[in-house]
């Protein structure tokens, strides 16, 4: 939902503005543990917090933290060494992090805080493949043509990403410093009713889960 200040801004402009990423934090564990503590600067009430979280499949998958929603795909396996879950919530205000519990696993993540959004987030059906070029899925949001913030990325083991989807910027990679797990994603602001991001490029062909999601503007 929009904050009072965001609604006032829109009333002044007379039009919607694109969702805006106000902070980005990539992180990764140094060793296996049964929980992961993520930290960031205090969030603003009404903003959307989204966490792309990768967990080794050595033990139990991550548990959705209290107050967050797990994306519709659940904790999805790459068919090998790791699972991907995306968690999101509307900030109450002042959140400086979250603890995610899981089995005795290494983890990595990317967190974004997004302002100027209605809080509606929609996901494409992730693609699972062994490939050099993970391909984030096409997405047609139910809200029709709007000025969305599109996010496209992938999780993968052992290698690195040398390029994000074409036309996307502010790319980030969360990486565990042991056991070599990765999640990479980037952003694009564009008006449209459908988005089919281009592929990422990795250093070698590995098992991947590629994903796309769209964050709606306030109006």
Structure description:
- The protein has 219 residues and is mainly β.
- The protein has one helix and 16 strands.
- It has one helix spanning 4-13; strands at 20-28, 33-39, 48-56, 69-70, 76-77, 82-90, 97-105, 107-115, 117-123, 127-131, 146-157, 161-163, 169-175, 181-192, 201-202, 206-217.
- The strands form four sheets. Strands 1, 3, 4, 5, 6 and 8 form a six-stranded antiparallel β-sheet that branches. Strands 9, 10, 11, 13, 14 and 16 form a six-stranded antiparallel β-sheet that branches.
- The longest helix is centred in the first third of the chain and has 10 residues, at 4-13.
- The termini are close together.
- The relative contact order is 0.26.
Keywords, please?
219 residues; mainly beta; six-stranded antiparallel beta sheet; 1 helix; disordered N terminus
Kindly summarize this structure in a few lines:
With 219 residues, the chain is mainly beta.
């Amino acid at each position: 939902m929009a904050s009072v200040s965001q609604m006032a801004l829109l009333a002044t402009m007379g039009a919607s503005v694109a969702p805006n990423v106000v902070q980005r934090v990539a992180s990764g564990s140094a060793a296996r543990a049964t929980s992961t503590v993520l930290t960031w600067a205090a969030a603003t009430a009404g903003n959307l917090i989204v966490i792309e979280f990768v967990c080794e499949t050595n033990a139990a998958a991550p548990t959705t933290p209290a107050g967050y929603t797990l994306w519709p795909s659940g904790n999805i396996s790459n068919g090998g060494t790791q699972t991907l879950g995306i968690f999101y919530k509307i900030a109450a205000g002042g959140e400086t992090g979250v603890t995610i519990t899981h089995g005795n696993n290494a983890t990595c993540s990317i967190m974004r805080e997004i302002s100027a959004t209605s809080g509606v987030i929609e996901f494409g059906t992730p693609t699972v493949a062994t490939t050099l070029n993970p391909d984030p899925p096409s997405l047609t949001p139910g809200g029709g043509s709007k000025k969305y913030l599109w996010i496209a990325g992938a999780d993968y083991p052992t290698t690195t990403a040398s390029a994000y989807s074409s036309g996307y910027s502010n790319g980030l990679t969360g990486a565990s410093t042991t056991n070599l797990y990765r999640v990479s994603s980037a952003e694009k602001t564009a008006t449209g009713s459908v988005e089919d991001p281009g592929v990422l490029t990795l250093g070698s062909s590995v098992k991947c889960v590629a994903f796309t999601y769209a964050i709606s503007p306030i109006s």
